[in-house]
């Protein structure tokens, strides 16, 4: 009888191999969902400030002159860009987008609030900073959990570039 080089595996071994494959698939699906959740959370967090910073049509635009700064927020008087614009008196803005008391910053006021968002390249890039952080964090999950190193490098470099651009435009 000629040997074909194939040995028959036992039923137990075949079941164990398929169960291990199922566990690997479940792990990969779980890691992909975690990475997706991190990216969606970063996008969601950024969109609250990015939307008014990017889509200013129909919103009250103007400048804020900083009068007082605390730990996280600065307040100042709002001057509308168009004559006869709505009077908002004092508005508050994130302290990270200003140089402190006396600084004048172009802003748009969020509808129905006294909160202003910086406009221009610096404001838009700062608004997307949480998404940049989620890109960096998801890159670690994708590299470690999924083993997709090139994709992880691309996401990590994109997140680093976005965060660096935000920092660079705010310090100029």
Description:
54% of the residues lie in helices and 19% in strands. The chain is an alpha+beta fold and 172 residues long. The chain has two domains: 32-47 and 120-172; 57-118, OB fold (Dihydrolipoamide Acetyltransferase, E2P). The protein has a five-stranded antiparallel beta sheet with strand order 3-2-1-4-5. Helix 2 crosses helix 4 (149-171) and helix 3 (129-146) runs antiparallel to helix 4 (149-171). The model has no long low-confidence stretch (mean pLDDT 88).
- What oligomeric state is this? single chain
Give the CA-CA distance, first to last residue.
83 Å
> Runs with pLDDT <50, length 5+?
none
Strands of the widest sheet, in order across it, are: 3-2-1-4-5
Major pleated sheet: 5 strands, antiparallel
Number of strands: 5
Tally of separate domains = 2
What level of helicity do the residues show?
40-55%
Secondary structure class reads alpha+beta
Mean pLDDT: 88
Shape: elongated
Per DSSP, what share of the residues sits in E-state strands of 2 or more residues? Answer: 15-25%
Q: What key phrases describe this protein's structure?
A:
single chain, 172 residues, alpha+beta, OB fold (Dihydrolipoamide Acetyltransferase, E2P), 5-stranded antiparallel beta sheet, 4 helices, 5 strands, 19% strand
Can you describe this structure in just a few lines?
The protein has 4 helices and 5 strands.
Write the layout of secondary structure elements.
Elements (H helix, E strand, L loop, with lengths): L10 H44 L5 E10 L3 E8 L9 E5 L9 E6 L6 E3 L1 H8 L1 H18 L2 H23 L1
Antiparallel strand pairs: 1-2, 1-4, 2-3, 4-5
